[in-house]
Amino acid sequence: MLGDGVAIDPTGDCLYAPCDGEVTVLQPSGHAITVLAADGAEILMHIGLDTVALKGVGFSPCVQVGDRVRKGDPLIRFDLDAVVCGAPSAATPVVLLETPGYTLARARADGLVEAGETIFTLHPAAAGAAEVKAASGGETVERTVVVPLAHGIHARPAARVRDALFGFSAEVTLAKAGRSASARSPVGLLTLGIGFGDEIVVAAQGSDAAEAVAALAALIESGMGEKGHAPAPAQVTAVAAAPALTVLPADGKLPGVTAAPGLSVGHARRFKLAEIEVDPAGTGVAEEQARFDAARATLAERLEREARHAHGAQRAIVEAHRALLDDAGLLGGAAAAIRGGASAGHGWREAIRPQADALRASGNGRMAERADDLLDLERRLLLVLAGREDTPLTLPPETILLAEDLLPSQLMALDRAHVVGICVERGGPTSHVAILAASMGLPTLVALGPVLRQVEEGTALILDAGLAHLHVAPDGDALGAARQTVAERQARRTAAKAAADKTCHMADGTRIEVFANLGSVADAELAMANGAEGSGLLRTEFLFLDRDTAPSVAEQTADYQAIADVLAGRPLIVRLLDIGGDKPAPYLPIPAEENPALGLRGIRVGFAHPQLLEDQIRAILSVKPLGQCRIMVPMIAGVDELRRVRAVLERVQADFDVDQIVELGVMVETPAAAVTADLLAAEADFLSIGTNDLTQYALAMDRGNAAVAGAIDGLHPSVLRMIAETARGASRHGRWTGVCGGLASDPLAVPILVGLGVTELSATPAIVPEIKALVSSLTLEAARAHAAAALTCATAAEVRALAREFTA
């Protein structure tokens, strides 16, 4: 369809230049490239078939558009395994696009070929060869079309567009965002970057212009067998249904979204991020590239130093920023801008900003929040180039910081002794700023909107992040009551920390285990310092994300063993890899999904990549002493899935030649698992409830979507009833039920959970002492009565009101 040529079935991992020339087209996803030879012929190389669906996963371009290349130069490096697993074929067409004046002559027969070997040669076309000439004259006929192809107009649809015009004499173009290309040129169409949902204009001029436009529009609107789906109307309505406040409420209570719970009293201090001025013009390509490389090396060293001294969420975020600093796309974009005459700083900004804008415009709440990480990285490198650092904020005691937005590095630089709370106009509940604030125990609200700007500097504030509101200019009585509550909570925390080493029992002697959720060795050390009795959830994603290949069995074993050693024999429940959806891994080809939360994620990824699942189980069984680690399966929906995992466990355990039982449990995150808990408990060794995902699935609300985040509450009666059903189902078979989701760290929820039959709570490490102290003050009889009352409530708000009365 594209032209004459050959197909290569690759056994290596690099595409090389077939001739001297200039790179004229490089697809954004890195899977296809066109080289213009010195004599005007265009050679298109397309790695694999339908690889546009991989969205760049596994492809690393070595060149940029405009680069001059020599025969044999590397053009694109690629992960052959990712291509083979994620595409229908790795066969790579090498095609002479229809170039007037040239034809191909084969230089050898089919068979094995080495890089650098001649496959075909170019020859002048025979005299008088037909050449398509577009008609001119007449009025222009236009039609606007919305592209329904899931992956846009890539190589194959571009060829079909051209073929559809055979027989028409009209001159036809496609235009997008002010740029146009001939519809008869597949390469020209590729340069437009036409994606799913883009609005394009089909225009023609000539005697049969109307017929040509109609035929081409019909072809594009048909989807060509690659039709995607538009977002459901309900999604759009949900976003539009929450208008932002324009004035402060009459009662002074400004609603927001909880990013980190807590209560604080203080005064408003406004923070505004100053833009860094950058000279757009460079002083020379070599000099500016050298400045950029030196600044990048300096920042890399700083980030590595920060990572060594950080722990938990802070360390994970710093390491993620360090990985972004090596991103080939960003580095290539900056280098291209510098070659175009930009200064080092302007080149870096030109590379970062389009990526950040694309993330914000993606429609995915979690991806939009990641734009802040890119802007943070941009700012830090620009500061290095300027030879300065951000001026530390000098803030008075009892500051509640108000900002349009905050970057992660700025939050980490705040003086925790003076800042008692944060309120942000923008942001979301799963941003890195939110994660950091929670790890720091800093009450934080996000998404308050522009109305926050109406709060005057120095105004007295009560920030109740637990109730998701900021009380502006409260009266003296409200201030006094809030200060007293803050003091009482602090006193309780101090007493709880002092008694944290004791084994946790309720006031009537009932044993309740209080564990900690972990994601690193540093988390384990913090958990032990706070009296955790083990780990109810080890998130193993920290080993698998932000890297190019999966960790080896030895690497996994070493990390799990290090955490087990810190726990000193205490139970360590290891959750099998839980990625997909909002947590993709670049080396696992998971195609784009319309509903990622309902797609290939959790244990489904393990089933799709069985070697990955087996390797992880093998690593867990290698931890000494055997049995300290228990295995937990995420995103279970039925007994059949549990049986598949147990079969793998038994096969791997047989290789170890040991008879000791290794406990295998399930993570109850789906309504399906909750209502069939009795069936699961008949074959599982324990059940642990992930209340974050269970809540989003029960309420049909995406917890990564800030537009609905304010309505998501794990104390909703529907969620509590599922927890109750899970505990009942487990008890029928003598299995214990734990909670490792956010509710286990919520003091209002803990008495209800215990009353519903939960006997193990796995909380964030910092709050373990408070949870243990709370549990030790309860009796099982009172907790059961309280839980029964909660199950009769009609709304989450009623449950929380009841819970506040109970804890008071």
From TrEMBL:
It is an enzyme of class 2 (transferase). GO terms for biological process: phosphoenolpyruvate-dependent sugar phosphotransferase system. It catalyses: L-histidyl-[protein] + phosphoenolpyruvate = N(pros)-phospho-L-histidyl-[protein] + pyruvate. Pfam families: PEP-utilisers_N, PEP-utilizers, PEP-utilizers_C, PTS-HPr, PTS_EIIA_1. It is found in: Cytoplasm. Keywords: Cytoplasm, Kinase, Magnesium, Metal-binding, Phosphotransferase system, Sugar transport, Transferase, Transport. Residues 1-98 form the PTS EIIA type-1 domain. NCBIfam families: PTS_HPr_family (TIGR01003), PTS_I_fam (TIGR01417). This is phosphoenolpyruvate--protein phosphotransferase.
